[in-house]
């Protein structure tokens, strides 16, 4: 899509102002900002971005056209994967349904040192997505009743979401999701140690039972140390012992297969895009309060594509609807 003249002018004005402020800070003459860090936080940009545009601007002797986005893509003579190799990878991907690591092992005897890396294979498969008929072949599962399976996971806050008295704070989110309805409970926690996750799990199970009358039969997690142990005696782990005591079966995903726990991973993606990125919070209480509002909106108002565009609460109501009398 071609950028309009108005958009070009806005981009030049935006970056021109940033570079002007940056140069004044370096000279110590800026009226408001004392450090470059304050500038980056105000404009919500990184030092890497500013240095890139500043270097490009100086190299062009002050040409404002260099502030516009540059053309992207592989350069002539670069290490771009040949088209015939891409076609072979896509053909094997669609016919055999292999993941990127399996595709690399499949083609290594043929292409030897020229075999694309797993990340390159992944980008190739994303570049040529499956069509509608091929998507229907993909096996998907969804439990029929609430409480049959729960997905538990933890999520590291990737950016300084909490800003407390100028000091950037980091933390984690812990979440439990019902497979059938996608109803989700999440909390902010300062760490993901075993005791913290165990107490979170107790609160989450109590919340599901109290609010939605959902009691879980089985819970699926990855093989992280906060959820399980490599010891043969699982009962030495607090989370394992807790699930055993309350008669809930514990299942595990295969190593390096986050897709198995994909429903909770999709929730983290939605939460990151629609809650974390647009907001910054000063205190933990502010984050916790707004997280509760987000969960209420997510469970009762947001239409879910995986549920044929109805809300998780509507899915729960539909599943629990009594059968008609014949």
Q: What attributes characterize this protein structure?
A:
globular, 326 residues, Nucleotidyltransferase, domain 5, alpha/beta, 12 helices, 5-stranded mixed β-sheet, two-stranded antiparallel sheet, single chain, 47% helix, 7 strands
Write the layout of secondary structure elements.
Layout: H1 5-27, H2 36-43, H3 47-59, H4 83-96, H5 100-111, H6 118-127, H7 132-137, E1 150-156, E2 162-164, E3 167-169, E4 172-178, E5 184-189, H8 194-212, E6 218-221, H9 238-245, E7 249-252, H10 262-276, H11 284-300, H12 312-319
Parallel strand pairs: 1-6, 6-7
Antiparallel strand pairs: 1-4, 2-3, 4-5
Helix pairs in contact: 5-6
Give an overview of the whole structure.
20% of the residues are buried. The protein is 47% helix and 10% strand. The chain folds into three domains: 63 residues; 55 residues, no CATH class; 170 residues, Ribonuclease H-like superfamily/Ribonuclease H (Nucleotidyltransferase, domain 5), CATH 3.30.420. It is globular. α5 crosses α6. It has 326 residues and is an alpha/beta fold.
């Amino acid at each position: 899509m071609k950028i309009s003249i108005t958009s070009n002018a806005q981009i030049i004005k935006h970056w021109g102002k940033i570079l002007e402020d940056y140069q004044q800070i370096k000279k110590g003459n800026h009226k408001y900002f004392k450090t470059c860090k304050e500038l980056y936080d105000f404009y919500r940009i990184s030092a890497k971005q500013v240095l890139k545009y500043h270097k490009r601007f100086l190299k062009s002797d002050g040409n404002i056209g260099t502030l516009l986005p540059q053309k992207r893509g592989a350069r002539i003579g670069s290490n771009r994967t040949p088209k015939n190799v891409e076609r072979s990878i896509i053909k094997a991907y669609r016919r055999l349904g292999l993941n990127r690591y399996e595709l690399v092992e499949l083609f290594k005897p043929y292409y030897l040192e020229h075999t694309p890396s797993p990340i390159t294979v992944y980008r190739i498969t994303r570049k040529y997505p499956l069509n509608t008929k091929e998507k229907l072949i993909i096996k998907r599962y969804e439990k029929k009743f609430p409480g049959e399976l729960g997905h538990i996971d933890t999520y590291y806050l990737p950016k300084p979401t909490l800003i407390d008295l100028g000091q950037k704070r980091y933390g984690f989110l812990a979440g439990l999701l019902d497979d059938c309805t996608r109803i989700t409970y999440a909390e902010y926690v300062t760490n993901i140690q075993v005791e913290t996750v165990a107490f979170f799990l107790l609160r989450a199970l109590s919340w599901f039972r109290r609010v939605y009358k959902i009691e879980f039969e089985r819970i699926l997690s990855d093989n992280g140390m906060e959820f399980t142990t490599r010891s043969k005696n699982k009962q030495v782990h607090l989370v394992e012992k807790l699930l055993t005591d309350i008669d809930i079966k514990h299942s595990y995903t295969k190593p390096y297969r986050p897709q198995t726990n994909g429903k909770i991973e999709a929730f983290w993606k939605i939460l990151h895009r629609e809650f974390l990125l647009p907001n910054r919070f000063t205190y933990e209480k502010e984050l916790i309060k707004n997280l509760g509002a987000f969960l209420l909106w997510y469970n009762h108002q947001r239409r879910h594509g995986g549920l044929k565009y109805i809300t998780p609460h509507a899915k729960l109501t539909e599943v629990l609807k009594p059968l008609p009398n014949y």
